[in-house]
Design a protein that fits this description.
By secondary structure, this protein is mainly alpha-helical. It is built from four helices and no strands. It has one domain. The longest helix is centred in the first third of the chain and has 23 residues.
Length: about 100
Amino acid sequence: MKNKRGKQKQLSHLYGVFLNHSMNEKSNNTPEYDLFITEFPKKGHGIVEYLQGRVHFALLDQMKLMHTSGMTHEQIKEVIVSQVNEIIENFDPKK
């Protein structure tokens, strides 16, 4: 368990470095979120497909940004899986 927490701390630090790097980068005065956020079309999809599409696009957008900031495929995978596991573990349907 201690080793897992140490690894999560490393990933959190790595992700923090990634966020700081990406937020400091500017490109041709275009807001950074315009460069990396893909909108999922609302028309023609049911609520389940729409929500799944938003998650899919959000993950792809985040992975593209992480890759652009210099993270490796393995680092990206570890951070994303860690975040998804944390979201699931903290989910409380009563809230």
